[in-house]
Amino acid sequence: MRKTHYMTFQNFFHKPSSKSSTKPRPFTAYSFVPFSPFAMLDPTILTLGGIVLGIAIIERILERWGVIDLVDQFSKVMRFVLPVTFYGALFYFFATFMF
Question: Which residue from 17, 46, 52, 78 has the fewest beta carbons nearer than 10 Å?
């Protein structure tokens, strides 16, 4: 037969328990970080995007003004800058927010 042990409210809260109720055991934990679109609001990514967008807007304004030589120079630079910026920002995003 099992004997029931009664404990008063005061003894329960003020007296430390003699034995642990849970036994710690080792376990393997895996973590998964879901993609969040709000992570793109990082100041570095916004700055890079703003610079590229600003250069594109300046290129369009210069094209309207008729300064074709300068627009041609901008387009040559942008052919190199856009892919480098895109892949750099993508690498930065995955290196910062996924690991």
Answer: 17
